[in-house]
Structures are given as structure tokens and as C-alpha cells.
Amino acid sequence: MAKQYSQSKALLAITKGSLLAIIKNPSALFFSLVFPLIFVWIFGSFGDGGASAFKIALDKNADTSNVFLYQTLQHHPLIKIVKYSDTAEQRVDLEKGRISAVMNIVSKKDSTQKNKYDIQLKSTTASAPDLQTIIPVIENIIDKYEKALHPQQESSISISQHIYAIREYKQIDFVLPGQIGFSILFATLFGIAFTFYNLREQLVLKRFYASPVNKLSILLGIGFSRLVFQLINVVVLIVVGKYFLGFTLIHGFFTFIQMLTLAILMLLVLMGVGLIFSSIVKSDSMIPMLINVFALPQMLLSGTFFSISVFPHWMQILCKTFPLTHFNLAIRKISFEGLTLIDCWQNLGVIGLWIIGVYFLVYKIFKWE
User: Fold this and answer.
1) What is the pLDDT of residues 262-286, one digit of tens each?
2) Are 319 and 299 in contact (CB under 8 A)?
3) Do residues 210 and 240 both lie within one domain?
4) Beta bridge pairs of residue 164
5) pTM, whole model, 2 decimals?
6) In this structure, is residue 182 part of a structural domain?
């Protein structure tokens, strides 16, 4: 008699074979296991995993002689006191909302020669909402301080606040520069990597190479077309942001030209990375995985969607190794703060180092066939 065919064994065999195929696929392992873990790790690092403390700058003239009061304020978990050696930098951070307030502790003696303290908080309309939380916290600290040291006496500490209006820093002023970086990051990498890979596989590059056309002209011609296309996208984003969403171009056309110049430098970096990927892969299925390995950490850690200040200090150092971080920082300084490319020389320097390193690798490993 013929042995009956086992559907259950067939099902198990197919399941086993499919599972092994998935396990042996590096991209499947990365996006199914490693990538979610990276997301959890990154977002779990916001504010060291706890509630975010409000940053308060200490005025250089603040009286910190009352050690108990000052240390009580300094060690409260919701208050992080920072000190600035440069008052201009302190003012910029205050107006951008990077710090919640500037605190000055003023002491004076009353008629009985008893010390009185006035905690003066200076803030701007960019950080004013933070004061609604900070002031009750400080009042609670003062109450505990008074009860501990002077339970029978009237309060010797007062709080005053001064909020001054500044040019509005809208959400679009943060979001749009990040979206420009995000757009050119993925579009350029995918466009360059797949274009040159397909040209190489179809022997088009080899035919170009055998022609009298200079090799550099071939690369520049194809690359220039991609650069122009991406610049058109950048222009559209800026124009739509400016005239429909209220994006700030502080110096108008001059700022616009500087933003395009910065975009060109970033595009040069990404075009070089795309050329490297097109040369080292064995099949086009590997290109998306390499691009995501390079681009996704930058998307999450370069200040594209949120400031890198939410991360611990050591992670911020890692963030500042990425070219997209410096692109985002520089383009926001140019568009809103009114700085020039020269003022952003440190950010441009890092991007320049990336250009040198990337094109050195392109020179060494680029393949024509």
C-alpha cells in the first residue's frame, strides 16, 4: 500500500526552510531584531532615562554665599544649574529656549540686619512656559528651607520674575532644516548608489571608460544631474516653508543662498558615500541595507526631529561625529540666528573632513566594471 503523504511534515519542512532563510538573511535580522533594539536604546536615553531637568543659568553676579540655599537649589532633581563664561552665548541660549531662565540671587539686609534674599528669574517668551513649572518648584524648596532653619520667622526669601519678548521661534524653524537634511540624506544615497550600480552592471560605465571622455567628466556629469535635482527639492522645501508655513529666513535671499551652499556641501558628502556603496556591493539587494546602516543612526541622532541635548553627554559626543548633525546645526544657525557660513566654520570643518575622507575612499575603491 502506498504510504499516505503527511501534510503536517510538509508544513513543518516549509516552515523550517523559510525560518532558516530568514535567519540567514542579514538584512532581515537587522531590521527585525537589531533595529528595534536601537530605537529602544536611543529613545530610552532621553534625559538619562528620567524626567528632564530645567536648565537655569546662574547670573555671574549671583550671591551664592548662603551655601545651604544655593546647594538646595543646585541639587534639586528638576533643576539643573549651568554656568556660562560667555554672556553672549548665555543670551543666545536663553532666546532660543535652550535654557529656561537666568537666575540671580540678590541679598540685602533689612532693618534688623537680617539677610533677605530675592531670587530673580529672567526669561523670554521662548521659555516662559517653563516658569509655570519652575516657580512652584522653587517655592517648595524655599518653604522647606525656611521650615528647616527658621520655622518661627517670616520668610526671608522672595521670588521675582521678568519675561521679555523676543522674535518668535516657531516649530517650523526647527523642523524644516531637519527635513531638508532628511530629504537629501536618503534621496541622494539611494539615487547615486542604485544609479552607478546599474550603470556598472549593464556595462555602461565600462563603455564610458573606453571612450575618449575623461573619467572625471563621466562621474561629474552623472553626479551633477543628481545634485541639480536634489537642489531643486531643497528650493521647493524652503519656498513652501517660507511662504506657506512661516519659516524664518532672517536675511532673506542672502540667507537662502547660504542655505543652498551648505546643502551643496552636504550633497557632496552623500554622493561620495553613494559611490562607495555602489562599488562594494555584490547585488542591488545589499544597497538598501548599507544605506540604512549609514543613514538611520544619523536620522535619529543628528537633531533631525529633536535636539541632541536630550541625550546624555557621552552620546552627544557621538552625535557630533555625524555630518548630518553639523548640517542641521549650521543651517538652523544661518536661517534663524542670522549667522553666516564663516560663523559656522566648525560645522563646515567637520563636513569638509567628511568630504576629504569619503572621496579618498572613492578614489581607492570605485569600480568601473
Assistant:
1) 999 999 999 999 989 988 888 888 8
2) no
3) yes
4) 124
5) 0.70
6) yes
